[in-house]
């Protein structure tokens, strides 16, 4: 469960990105975060995986108070979430398999477990047959699926996705959404920041709209609410 | 810190790969360490040996007590026993003026021949050669002997030793300044090499952080990289210095045969020098990597 209470974020340069944000997201929910560029979506998301620290207020994720989380505990906290980006962030010199396994290797999992778990995950995103290929040999959609596989290989309770379809054509975007849906039905909370009106309006989920650092709308099965 | 063997292997592989990837920087850093350690090593070897020589000389320094010509045999014996009564005195040896003249003649070599004329009418004094238990007692013992009857003149070679020690001290200070400068250069180069690998691996580090790798896990390969640079840089200096020392030792030792001055023996001295250089190399390497890693791996 994610709980934010009266969260403020002021950057050192004086910009107030988030001001007085409170929200509660239950385990297993699928939530779209929408709003114009510069509205505070990115800061909102960055605070979720403790890339940014709130200046004021509390953020609780699965019982962890992020404002009070020690620097040294951040790595262990992050192992409970998966993060997906618009630009995939894959390592070009590693194969598909190695890219996904990387996430488990650097947290020192057993080699046997890594092998089994990576293959399972690649199967889930339909890329088992391309395990030995390099990211550069894949299409954009496939690359994003590798990145999703990497984010969920550690069986996180929450997956945070920042514009995961931002670089993809419409058709590929649907494929990606199908995978997120699948992950969500297995009980994982999905938080997805997006500008994709069509997706939000078609696959209906809770919509949180952020403007000027505040939540201006929070609807179950809401719609995108912006033109394009 | 407990680290699994597998993780250690991974870090090793990672650092070796980085070193290979930045070939030229690796080469530059190792060269810098090599030059630094070579100079440090040579300097250290010379300093330690000068110190040894100075100590040898100091230990050999004795007080020469010229006995008053008016002294009878009994007076001489009284003087000897009085000197022996001084608690810091180790030994008193009598050297008659004939021996003194012979010593003088032989120490001057060819030119000494001229002094042979004096054999008929020896102008030198009979002498007591006094050794103290500790070199630092020389001065006080000499003062005490001066006050005894029939001690005509008391001399000791402390001045020469003092000069040698002050020379060693000065060159040590000059050398230290030079070495510290070199050490910093080497550290700077290593830290730059590692900085480059860190920048090249930005994306990898970013992903590692995202998926929850601990900071120490991320840092380890860089530490090892620095360590390897430092240790690799100590290989040439150690082999070079020990080779040269072996030859010089043999050469100089044969010249010094029978002399009270000796160089430090190859074993254990060269092992100590080797150990020192490896440690110094490792220190430079780790310090260089710590400097760059700290700056670049901030969350």
UniProtKB/TrEMBL annotation, chain A:
<keyword id="KW-0131">Cell cycle</keyword>
<dbReference type="GO" id="GO:0022857">
    <property type="term" value="F:transmembrane transporter activity"/>
</dbReference>
<comment type="subunit">
    <text>Homodimer. Forms a membrane-associated complex with FtsX.</text>
</comment>
<comment type="similarity">
    <text>Belongs to the ABC transporter superfamily.</text>
</comment>
<keyword id="KW-1003">Cell membrane</keyword>
<keyword id="KW-0813">Transport</keyword>
<dbReference type="InterPro" id="IPR005286">
    <property type="entry name" value="Cell_div_FtsE"/>
</dbReference>
<dbReference type="GO" id="GO:0005886">
    <property type="term" value="C:plasma membrane"/>
</dbReference>
<dbReference type="InterPro" id="IPR015854">
    <property type="entry name" value="ABC_transpr_LolD-like"/>
</dbReference>
<dbReference type="GO" id="GO:0005524">
    <property type="term" value="F:ATP binding"/>
</dbReference>
<dbReference type="GO" id="GO:0016887">
    <property type="term" value="F:ATP hydrolysis activity"/>
</dbReference>
<protein>
    <recommendedName>
        <fullName>Cell division ATP-binding protein FtsE</fullName>
    </recommendedName>
</protein>
<keyword id="KW-0472">Membrane</keyword>
<feature type="domain" description="ABC transporter">
    <location>
        <begin position="2"/>
        <end position="228"/>
    </location>
</feature>
<keyword id="KW-0547">Nucleotide-binding</keyword>
<dbReference type="InterPro" id="IPR027417">
    <property type="entry name" value="P-loop_NTPase"/>
</dbReference>
<comment type="function">
    <text>Part of the ABC transporter FtsEX involved in cellular division.</text>
</comment>
<keyword id="KW-0132">Cell division</keyword>
<dbReference type="Pfam" id="PF00005">
    <property type="entry name" value="ABC_tran"/>
</dbReference>
<dbReference type="InterPro" id="IPR017871">
    <property type="entry name" value="ABC_transporter-like_CS"/>
</dbReference>
<dbReference type="InterPro" id="IPR003439">
    <property type="entry name" value="ABC_transporter-like_ATP-bd"/>
</dbReference>
<keyword id="KW-0067">ATP-binding</keyword>
<dbReference type="GO" id="GO:0051301">
    <property type="term" value="P:cell division"/>
</dbReference>
<dbReference type="InterPro" id="IPR003593">
    <property type="entry name" value="AAA+_ATPase"/>
</dbReference>
């Amino acid at each position: 469960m994610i709980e934010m209470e009266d969260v403020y974020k002021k950057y050192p340069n004086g910009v107030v990105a988030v001001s007085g944000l409170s929200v509660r997201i239950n385990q297993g929910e699928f939530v779209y975060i929408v709003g114009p560029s510069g509205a505070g979506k990115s800061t909102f998301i960055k605070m979720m995986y403790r890339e940014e620290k709130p200046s004021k207020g509390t953020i609780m994720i699965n019982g962890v108070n992020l404002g009070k989380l020690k620097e040294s505990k951040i790595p262990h906290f992050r192992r409970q979430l998966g993060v997906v980006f618009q630009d995939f962030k894959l390592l070009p010199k590693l194969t598909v398999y190695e890219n996904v396994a990387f996430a488990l290797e650097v947290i020192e999992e057993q080699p046997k477990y890594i092998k089994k778990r990576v293959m399972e995950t690649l199967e889930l995103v339909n890329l088992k047959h391309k395990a030995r290929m390099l990211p550069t040999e894949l299409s954009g959609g496939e690359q994003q699926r590798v990145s999703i596989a990497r984010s969920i290989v550690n069986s996180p309770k929450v997956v945070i996705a920042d514009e995961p379809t931002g670089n993809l054509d419409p058709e590929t975007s649907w494929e990606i959404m199908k995978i997120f849906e699948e992950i969500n039905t297995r009980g994982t909370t999905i938080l997805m920041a997006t500008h994709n009106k069509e997706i939000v309006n078609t696959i209906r989920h809770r919509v949180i709209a952020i403007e000027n650092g505040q939540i201006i709308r929070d609807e179950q099965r809401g719609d995108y609410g912006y033109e394009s | 810190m407990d680290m699994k063997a597998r993780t250690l292997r991974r870090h090793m592989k990672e650092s070796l790969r980085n070193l290979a990837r930045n070939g030229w920087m690796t080469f530059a850093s190792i060269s810098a360490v090599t030059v630094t350690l070579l100079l440090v090593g040579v300097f250290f070897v010379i300093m330690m040996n000068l110190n040894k020589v100075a100590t040898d000389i100091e230990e050999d320094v004795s007080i020469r007590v010229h006995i008053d010509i008016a002294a009878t045999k009994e007076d001489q014996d009284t003087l000897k026993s009085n000197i022996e009564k001084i608690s810091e005195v180790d030994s008193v040896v009598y050297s008659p003026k004939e021996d003194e003249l012979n010593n003088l003649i032989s120490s001057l070599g060819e030119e000494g021949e001229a002094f042979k004329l004096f054999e008929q009418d020896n102008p030198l004094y009979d002498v007591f050669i006094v050794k103290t238990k500790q070199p630092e007692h020389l001065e006080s013992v000499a003062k005490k002997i001066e006050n005894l009857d029939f001690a005509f003149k008391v001399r000791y070679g402390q001045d020469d030793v003092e000069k040698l020690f002050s020379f060693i001290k000065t060159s040590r200070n000059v050398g230290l300044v030079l070495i510290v400068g070199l050490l910093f250069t080497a550290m700077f180069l290593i830290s730059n090499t590692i900085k480059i690998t860190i920048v090249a691996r930005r994306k990898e580090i970013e992903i590692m952080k995202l998926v929850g790798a601990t900071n120490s896990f991320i840092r380890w390969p860089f530490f090892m990289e620095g360590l390897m640079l430092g240790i690799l840089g100590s290989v040439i200096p150690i082999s070079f210095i020990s080779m040269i020392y072996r030859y010089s030792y043999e050469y100089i030792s044969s010249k010094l045969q029978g002399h009270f001055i000796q160089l430090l023996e190859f074993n254990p001295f060269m092992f100590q020098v080797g150990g020192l250089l490896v440690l110094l190399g490792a220190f430079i390497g780790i310090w260089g990597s710590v400097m760059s890693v700290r700056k670049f791996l901030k969350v």
